[in-house]
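Standup notes, structure subgroup. Blocker cleared on the pyridoxal-5'-phosphate input:
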Amino acid sequence: MSKRLFLSAPHMSGNELKYIEKVFQSNYIAPLGAYVDKFEESIKAYTRSENALALSSGTGAIHLALRILGVGAGDDVLASTFTFIGSVNAILYQNANPVFIDSDKESWNISPKLLNKYLLTCEKKPKALILTHLYGMSADIEKIKDICTSHGVYLIEDAAESLGATFNKKHTGTFGDFGIYSFNGNKILTTSGGGMLVSPNKKWIEKAKFYATQAKESFIHYEHNEYGYNYRMSNVLAAIGVAQMEVIEDRVLKKREIFGWYKEFLNDIEEITFMPELANSRGNRWLTALTFDKTAYTDVMEALEKINVESRPLWKPMHMQPLFQHAVSLLDGTSETLYKNGLCLASSTTMVKDDVKMICEKIRSIL
Ligand SMILES: *Cc1c(COP(=O)(O)O)cnc(C)c1O
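Run returned:
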């Protein structure tokens, strides 16, 4: 059996161990240290965000954003329904209510039209929107930001999957009041686990840092006026992050190249539609995603599994999850149709063109 081809396997730059070694030599194993600062600086420089905070996960970053924006019990929070659960779990941590908005066909991300319609007609104004840039592809972010601004709704960008993706040359994650990135195992970069919170608002990031370190007041005797969390990133993992950031552009270009290969080999098949890329945007093509008009995606998945190639259905929309059966949503069927017909294909940056060719031949054989 040939070596397994994964959706998005970790891909080290080569400098990770060297930097970890330096951490060990300094004995600043944890929790904080010079590499945490360096990692934050590298994210700031690359995404051109003004303030950044390294955390133990992307989910924790979203949680801190909601807490800082004052989202609490009984508040409504808008979110993309077509997303991964990590995007919306923190709404529940704050005892708030998610309100799910469907995708549009142009971006597969939240529909600005439906978002605006909801905000024009709702009785209770939501406090914030958590917008996901799905599979590394930018949402129609300028329009969405304008809608949020005109309705007085805070914008949190879930850019967990979209580090390196831009809209009008501006990085996803830097349009909103807050943006978050994830460095979990299969993201475009990984620290094995971790996240980053960014914001143009310095005070908010300082407050987030305070909450992320157990809300310790600055007294030597550990005084507490509020409750916090243990959410910061360790210096060891930040060392991995610094080494990974050295190759972020290479990884984006390689992911886009892999997408290009899939397109080259499958473009003539009429029943296949690839996830679109909005004009003026550059996606990072974290995972190549497509839909089939006629063939069941499960048949394709099983065939690929037989040749040891990983694939996965598109995220099951949040409004279809038993957990959210009582949540309010504004839907037009778009995400449900995508979910029922779609698949993510192996997109690891270690793959070569022949790997993609082999996968495409397999797909072609069963259509
Ligand atoms: C991975 C992911 C998250 C969660 O990030 P973690 O670092 O794993 O907590 C949130 N939202 C989306 C869209 C993701 O893909």
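Discussed briefly. The first strand starts at residue 51 and ends at 55.
Next: hand off to the docking folks.
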